[in-house]
Amino acid sequence: MVEFTISKSKVGPVTARYLNGEYQNVDAENDNGVKRMAVLGLDNSHNKDYKVAYASDALITIQGGKGVTHDDLESVLKDVGAWDIANFIPIEIPHGQKWREGFKTTPERVNSMSLLYEKFERAVEEHQLLGDEEQFSVYY
What we know:
mainly beta
C-alpha cells in the first residue's frame, strides 16, 4: 500500500532542524541531489522544529508516507493519469529525525489541484480517498 498526501501548500528550503536539544544545520540536498524542503501552510505556518529560509508561492505538494519512494509516488500518479498534469519535481521532506520523499509542482500549476482531485475521485471505488478541496490523503 502506498500512502501519501496531496495538498495546496508552500515550501521552503530547510536550513536547520532541531535535534538533540539544539538546531543543527542540514545539507540543502541529499546525496542524490534532491532538495530538502519543508512543507508550509498557505499562511507560511510550519513545524518550528525546522528552520526555513523562505516560503515559496502556493503550489501542489505530494508527501509520501513512511517507506514510500519517489518511484512509488510516480507509479501511482501515472496509474491514475495524473503524472502529466504538472512537472513534478522530487523533494525530500523532514519528518521527525528522518526524511520522507515527495514532489512539488511549480507555482503556476497550483490551479491543477482540482484536476488532480478529479483524477483521484475517479479512482475512489478502488482506493480510499480522504480529504477536502485543499488537501487529501490517498491509500493506494
